[in-house]
UniProtKB/TrEMBL annotation:
Single biological process term from Gene Ontology: base-excision repair
Entry keywords, A to Z: 4Fe-4S, DNA damage, DNA repair, Hydrolase, Iron, Iron-sulfur, Metal-binding
Membrane spanning stretches: none
One annotated GO molecular function: uracil DNA N-glycosylase activity
Highest taxon listed in the record's lineage: Bacteria
Lineage: Bacteria, Bacillati, Actinomycetota, Actinomycetes, Mycobacteriales
Keyword DNA repair on entry: yes
CDD domains according to UniProt: UDG-F5_TTUDGB_like
SMART domains: UDG, UreE_C
Name of the featured protein: Type-5 uracil-DNA glycosylase
Domain (Uracil-DNA glycosylase-like): residue spans on this chain: 45-221
SUPFAM superfamilies in alphabetical order: Uracil-DNA glycosylase-like
Organism the protein comes from: Rhodococcus oxybenzonivorans
Length: 230
């Protein structure tokens, strides 16, 4: 399918010199706990079915998470938090995500990021966000006919996504809606309405401090799933 073709192209991308250098260096140096593993060290594609009605947009893969395992939010604490919540609301086949081939399946939901390579300090530059945008544009176009809701985890993803939605034909109000946890905006578009939800990112800064609790995340996931007809 088109999405599989897109993902196959994406994994060969080397458009951002700083990120290519970083993702490959991390993959060679490794974290002690994973020294016997072969890191992925390449762009990490979105994960989930091509006919997803709901999309979750994060920030970028983690150095020892997605950059190690090759799958979004897989093999790190952020992912443990996200997939446990997805499982709790019936959108994932299991609460854990450890490696490709672990049996995890998402139902009607896809997880992606506006930047597909792990950045130093989890901070991509605006230029890198802009460079990677072509992949999000293309992914959105493929998902568009069935897409009914999007959850954006954090302000970076929100900033990145709004122009992409606009270019894909959804009407984004002016001034542009602000990111916040619990933000909910309904956009109109030629393929039907799209419900956009804001949620704090599942990073450890938020989940360890209780700024984002499992109940808060599950509540946004349930609302967005309902809006998507899942
Ligand atoms: Fe390519 Fe995106 Fe990775 Fe940059 S961040 S190298 S555009 S996949």
């Amino acid at each position: 399918n088109d999405l599989a073709r897109l993902d196959a192209e994406l994994v060969d991308c080397r458009a951002c010199p700083r990120l290519v250098e970083w993702r490959e260096r991390v993959a060679l140096e490794k974290r002690a706990a994973y020294r016997n593993e072969t890191y992925w060290g390449r762009p990490v594609p979105g994960f989930g079915p091509p006919d997803a009605a709901m999309l979750i947009v994060g920030l970028a893969p983690a150095a020892h998470g997605g950059n190690r395992t090759g799958r979004m939010f897989t093999g790190d604490r952020s992912g443990d938090f996200l997939y446990a919540a997805l499982h709790a609301v019936g959108l994932a086949s299991q609460p854990t995500a450890t490696h490709i081939g672990d049996g995890l399946e998402l139902f009607g939901t896809r997880v992606t990021a506006p930047v597909h390579c792990a950045p130093p300090d989890n901070k991509p530059t605006p230029v890198e966000r802009q460079t990677c945008r072509r992949w999000l544009d293309a992914e959105l176009k493929i998902l568009q006919p069935r897409l009914r809701s999007v959850i954006v985890l954090g302000g970076f993803g929100w900033q990145a996504l709004l122009p992409v939605l606009e270019d894909a034909g959804w009407v984004v109000p002016r001034p542009r809606p602000k990111f916040g946890h619990g933000a909910h905006v309904e956009l109109t578009g030629r393929t039907g309405p799209l419900h956009l939800f804001g949620c704090y990112h599942v990073s450890q800064q938020n989940t360890f401090t209780g700024r984002l609790t499992p109940a808060m995340l599950e509540s946004v996931l349930s609302d967005a799933a309902r809006a998507a007809g899942l």
